[in-house]
Amino acid sequence: MGQHRTIPSLWQPCGARYVAVYGTLRAGGVNDMARLRPGIARVGLTTLTGTLHDLGWYPGLRLAGTQSVLAEVYPLDDALEQTLDGIEAIWPNDAGEYAKHILRTQVVLDGGGNQTLDVLVYEALPGFVQGTPVIAASDWIAWYAGKSK
Hints:
Elements (H helix, E strand, L loop, with lengths): L17 E4 L11 H4 L7 E11 L4 E17 L2 H10 L10 E12 L4 E11 L1 H4 L10 H8 L2
Parallel strand pairs: 1-5
Antiparallel strand pairs: 1-3, 2-3, 2-4, 4-5
């Protein structure tokens, strides 16, 4: 009998030129974008709307709800997106934790001013966060630092 194996699907980029990160990928997080891509420059900050869940050492954001969640916006290319898909367990094998969404959002630019940008956001799937505690804070990095003390 031959072995059965799953062949991962071919990876496809989402087409967004920016990514908004709200958890461990933020500056100071364990997956800090600057460690993934040395020299990357943050574009600015935005606020995502939804519900932030405590998943232990990392958060999950549902884009349903009214909570404001602070996110950092970074430039995105195909190589970085593929790395992020691996961190979020979307590719090469989908663990069923997150889905990718492109949102249009106002970004407060680090260089001054505001700009509306289409950003990639990794949203936690409903079944994955069901029954997990909701975080009543907009800044996950600050909340987690306080929790860890």
